[in-house]
Design brief:
- It is built from twelve helices and eight strands.
- 44% of the residues lie in helices and 7% in strands.
- The strands form two sheets. Strands 2-1-3-4-5-8 form a six-stranded mixed β-sheet, covered by helices on one side. A two-stranded antiparallel ribbon has the order 6-7.
- By secondary structure, the protein is of the alpha/beta class.
- Helix 3 packs parallel to helix 7.
C-alpha cells in the first residue's frame, strides 16, 4: 500500500513538473471551431441576427462592453487560452488578425451553425462548417507567408483545437418547428446516426489539414436551458425529448471519436462531455455557488427564457449566482467551471485524458 501511494505521489509530481515545462515554453497555437458557445466575435462582421454585439453582453468583460461573445464576460475558449498560457484568439474575420497575432491561432466559430449546412438557416449569413474549414486552409497560407511552410506545418501539428457543434442541429433544425423537414426525413435515432456520421467527416478533414490535438465537446443539457423551460415547462422540468436527443448524441459521439483515434493511431480526438458538467449545475446548482440553474440572468418572460439578451431585458445584479447568462448560454462563472473540468477532470468529463495531462505529455514529445 505504501509503495502504491509513493508511486502515485511520484506520478502526480512528475506530471506537474511537465505541465510547468509546457506552460513555460512558447504557447502553442489555439484554434476554435463551432457555434455560439465558442464564437468570440466573428458574427459581428456578418449581416445576421445571430449576434451578441449589444449591451449588456460583455458587462463583466474587462472592457465592460459587448465583444461578440454570448456571455457576460469570458467564454470557454478564453479560459482555455488562459489555462495554456496563451493570449485569447481573435475572430478570424477581425481586421486585427494579422502579423504576429496570427501565430496565436484563430477563432473560426460562428453563432448559429451546426454539423449540417441547413442548421441555423434562419440566421442566413453565418460561417457554416465548410467555410470554417476553408478559412483554416486560408489561415495556413497566410501564416506560411510569415514563417515559411515548414514552421507553419509545425505550428499546426503542435497546436490545440476546440470543436463545439451539435446543439443547434437539434434546437435550430430538427426541433426548430413542428414537423420540420429533418424530423419528417428521419426518426430521432436515425437522425443522430446521420449527424454523427457527418461530424466524422468534419473531424477527419481537420486531421487531413494537420491538426493533431482536437477537443470535441458533447452537447449541453439542451432540454434544460431557460429557453426550453420558457416554452415547454410548467414546473421547471427539463424537456424530455431534447434531453433524450442529447442522451443519444453524446455516447455515439464518443464512440465515433474512439473509432477515429483507432483509425489514425493516436489520441488526436479528445471527448469533452460538457453535458455532464452542465448537468451538475442543473441538478445541484447550490454545490457550485449558483442560486438557480433555471432562470437566465438576462432575458424576459418565464425563466427569462424568451428571445435573447437585449438592452431592455431583465438583468440580474450578480451574474456569479446564475448558471445561465442568457436563455441559451452559460454564465462566465459556469464557463470557468467547465474549463476547470477540461483541465483537471476525470474521465467522467474528458476522455481519454484531461488537458493538463495532454499538455504534460506533449511537452515531452515536443522537446
Amino acid at each position: 500500500m505504501a509503495t502504491s501511494k509513493s508511486f502515485c505521489l511520484f506520478w502526480f509530481s512528475f506530471l506537474a513538473t511537465l505541465l510547468n515545462v509546457a506552460l513555460e515554453a512558447d504557447a502553442r497555437a489555439f484554434f476554435v471551431f463551432g457555434d455560439s458557445l465558442v464564437d468570440n466575435g466573428n458574427n459581428n462582421y456578418l449581416a445576421t441576427t445571430a449576434r451578441a454585439d449589444n449591451v449588456p453582453y460583455g458587462v463583466d468583460y474587462p472592457t465592460g462592453g459587448p465583444t461578440g461573445r454570448f456571455s457576460n464576460g469570458y467564454n470557454i475558449p478564453d479560459f482555455i487560452s488562459q489555462a495554456i498560457g496563451s493570449e485569447a484568439t481573435l475572430p478570424y474575420l477581425s481586421p486585427q488578425l494579422t502579423g504576429q497575432n496570427l501565430l496565436v491561432g484563430a477563432n473560426f466559430a460562428s453563432a448559429g451553425v451546426g454539423i449540417l449546412n441547413d442548421t441555423g438557416a434562419q440566421f442566413v449569413n453565418i460561417i457554416r462548417m465548410p467555410q470554417q474549414l476553408a478559412y483554416l486552409e486560408q489561415y495556413k497560407q497566410r501564416v506560411s507567408e510569415i514563417i515559411g511552410q515548414q514552421e507553419t506545418d509545425r505550428l499546426i501539428s503542435q497546436s490545440l483545437t476546440l470543436m463545439t457543434l451539435g446543439g443547434n442541429d437539434f434546437v435550430n433544425n430538427y426541433y426548430l418547428v413542428p414537423f420540420s423537414a429533418r424530423s419528417r426525413q428521419f426518426a430521432l435515432p436515425d437522425y443522430v446516426v446521420y449527424i454523427v456520421s457527418e461530424y466524422r467527416k468534419i473531424l477527419m478533414r481537420l486531421y487531413e489539414i494537420g491538426l493533431r490535438r482536437v477537443l470535441v465537446t458533447g452537447t449541453g443539457p439542451i432540454g434544460c436551458v431557460p429557453a426550453e423551460l420558457a416554452q415547454h415547462s410548467r414546473n421547471g422540468e427539463c424537456s424530455v425529448e431534447l434531453q433524450r436527443a442529447a442522451g443519444m448524441f453524446n455516447p455515439q459521439l464518443q464512440e465515433m471519436l474512439d473509432s477515429l483515434n483507432s483509425e489514425v493511431g493516436s489520441h488526436t480526438f479528445i471527448g469533452v462531455n460538457i453535458r455532464q458538467t452542465s448537468l451538475d449545475f442543473v441538478s445541484d446548482p447550490g454545490r457550485y455557488g449558483f442560486v438557480t440553474s433555471k432562470i437566465a440572468c438576462c432575458g424576459q418572460g418565464p425563466y427569462n427564457g424568451i428571445g435573447l439578451c437585449t438592452p431592455r431585458s431583465n438583468l440580474c445584479p450578480n451574474r456569479d449566482i446564475y448558471a445561465f447568462w442568457d436563455p441559451f448560454h452559460p454564465s462566465e462563472k459556469a464557463n470557468r467551471l467547465i474549463v476547470q473540468q477540461i483541465m483537471t477532470g476525470s474521465t467522467d468529463y474528458i476522455t481519454p485524458m484531461n488537458l493538463s495531462t495532454i499538455m504534460a505529455l506533449d511537452a515531452v514529445e515536443n522537446v
